[in-house]
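Just curious. Invent one:
>
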Amino acid sequence: MYKFLLIARCSLLLFVSILLIASCGKKEVKKVSMESNMAKEVFALAETMRNAYVKNDRATLERNSTKEGYRELIGAMKSFDSVELTFTPRWVDIEDSVIYLNVSWKGTWVVSGKKTEERGMAIFVLEGKPPKLARVLRANPFKQPE
């Protein structure tokens, strides 16, 4: 009789374990939100703008900016021999058709053999579909070296 109860308990424990494993096996697939997709898109745009600035690729800067944004960007840019610039996206705020991308940046510029290091926090104002750079608020990395 004792062996029978032991086998019954083990069988019951095994059965409950199988039920738990089976019930936890299904994963619910969640759709990616529109805001999440938009954030990924603006992160990629910031990286595109960074690469274009480093390479002094004005055509790419113009293509990814509004007319006013491009004028502001080119007007602020200073000449440099070389630059190492990194962007770290911090926050995205979407209000109607305007996107505010907060970016922490760090850069090293070389001008006529003189090395200058700067860092700051910028807000890229993006408008339109697809998003394009309209303005840069706060510490503009494209204005450096100051």
